[in-house]
C-alpha cells in the first residue's frame, strides 16, 4: 500500500476514482489476493463488526475485571442535546464493540483491538441513516480506511506501546474519517482533509489503561474517537481545508509518539492509570497469578 | 509502496481484548499443541513480563489454553477454555516467571505433555497478533508461525539436513527458511524448516526413516 496519502491522492485523481476503489485496485495489483478475495475479506470484517454491535447493545456483557460493560445500552435511550441523531448512534456503536472486546467477544482489530470500536461505530452509524450506503459501499469505506491505516503504519505507528493512544484510537478516528467521506460520496480531497482534521484532534493522546487492561479508558475513548471522526467528516464536507498537509500531520503523530514518556505508552505507569482511584481499582479487580522465583 | 496489506489493517477477526495478549498468546498455544501432535494431557504455562502482570485480565491464560486445545484466535470458545480443559481432564498449571536475558515483555514458556511426548516452547507476542517462537526444547529457533513449519529433532550427525531437504524437494515443497540449532557437537540438534506448503504424512515418515532422527512434527500455519 502507499507510503504517503499525497501519492494516493494523485493516483485517485489520475484514475478518476475514490480512495476506496483505488485501495482495492492497488491491493489487487500487489498480487497476494484476487479482488474477489479482498472484497470477501472486507465483507467478513463488516459482518463481524455488525455482529459485535448487535452483541454489545443489549448491555448484558461485563469485562473480565467487571470494570466495564452495559454503557452502550444506556445510549440506546439518549437524553442529551444530540439524542436521536447520527452522533449518538456512533457513540453507542463504538461503545458496544469495545464492550464486546473487553468481554472476550469477537471483534475486528481495526487497526488494533484497543481501537476496534471507532470504525464500526462510524461506518455502521452512517449506514443506519443512509439507505443508499449498502454493504458494497461500506466495503469500499473499509478499503479507504485500510489505505489510511497502512500509511499511518509505515509513517508513524499503530501501537499504543509505541505511540500512545493517538496511534490506536487516534489512528482509528483518522481511518474512520476517510471511510465516512468514502461512503458519503465525498471527494479524495475531502477524505485527506477529514483525516488531517480528525488526527490533529488526537495528537498527543496518551495510552493510560487502568492495570494495563483494554477497559478504562479504552472503551470510552473509542466513543470519543468516533466523535472526533465525525467532526473531521463534517468539517471537510463543509469545505474546510486543514493548513498542514495530512502526511505531515501523520509524521507529527509518529514524532510525538517516539518522544512520549514510557509511562504513557500502555504501561499503566502514568495518566489515568496512575491516579489514586485508577491504582485502587486495578489492585482490587486484577487478581495476580502467584509469583514464582527467577528461573 | 510498502508491504502492508488492507487485511492486515482491517483485521484480524479475533476474540478480544488485545491482539498481543489474546490473539498472539493463542497462536503460541497452537504452536505448542502441534509440537506434541494433538490434544495435550498436561501443560505447564509460565508467563513472563507483561503477560505475567496483565495476562489474566487480558485472558492470556485462556487464550494460551485455547490454543493448546486447538482453537483459533477468532474462536469464541477461548473464553471458556479453562473450563473446557478441565472437562477434558487436560491439566494446566500456571506460574509467573522472570526469564533471563533480553526477552520480549510478552513472552510465555509452555511445557506440554501428550502420551509419552514432551515438548517445550518459548514464544513472544510481538503485537497485532504476530508471534515469534524463540526456543523449542531449549534450542534457539526463530519461527514466526506464518508458514507451515517442519520441526525435526535428530542426533547431530552428517547428512540429516541433506536428507530432509531431499524428502521435501521430492514432495514438491518449496522452502522459505532453514535453521539448524545444536547444543553441543555430536549431541542433539533441532532443525526447523519453514515451508511454502504443508508437509504431508508421507514426507514426515520419510524424514523419520533416517537414522538418528528422533522426532518430526508438522506445525500448521498459525498466523
Description of the structure:
The complex is a heterodimer of chains A (295) and B (223). Chain A has helices at residues 5-15, 19-29, 35-56, 71-74, 86-102, 118-129, 135-155, 160-163, 169-183, 188-200, 218-237, 246-258, 276-285; one strand at 106-108. Chain A is mostly helical and 295 residues long. The N and C termini of chain A lie far apart (44 Å). With 223 residues, chain B is of the alpha+beta class. Chain B has two domains: 12-136, 60s Ribosomal Protein L30, Chain: A; 149-219, 2-Layer Sandwich (Alpha-Beta Plaits). In chain B, β4 and β5 form a beta hairpin. Chain B starts with 5 loop residues before the first helix and ends with a strand. The mean pLDDT of chain B is 93. At the A-B interface, α2, α3, α5, β1 and α7 of A face α1, β1, α2, α3 and β3 of B.
Question: In a nutshell, what does this entry contain?
Answer:
Chain A is 59% helix and 1% strand.
Which descriptors apply to this entry?
heterodimer; A: 295 residues; mainly alpha; 2-methylcitrate dehydratase PrpD; globular; disordered C terminus; B: alpha+beta; Alpha-Beta Plaits; 7 helices
Strand order of the largest sheet of chain B: 3-2-4-5-6-7
Give the low-pLDDT segments of chain A.
288-295
Helix content of chain A: 55-70%
Overall average residue pLDDT of chain B? 93
Assembly annotation: heterodimer
Rg result of chain A: 19 Å
CATH architecture of chain A: Orthogonal Bundle
Tell me the number of helical segments of chain B per DSSP (H or I, 4 or more residues long). Answer: 7
CATH architectural type of the largest domain in chain B: 2-Layer Sandwich
Name of the level-1 CATH class of the largest domain in chain B = Alpha Beta
Report how far apart the termini of chain B are. Answer: 23 Å
CATH hierarchy, class of chain A? Mainly Alpha
The greatest interface here is: A-B, 65 and 47 residues
Secondary structural class of chain B: alpha+beta
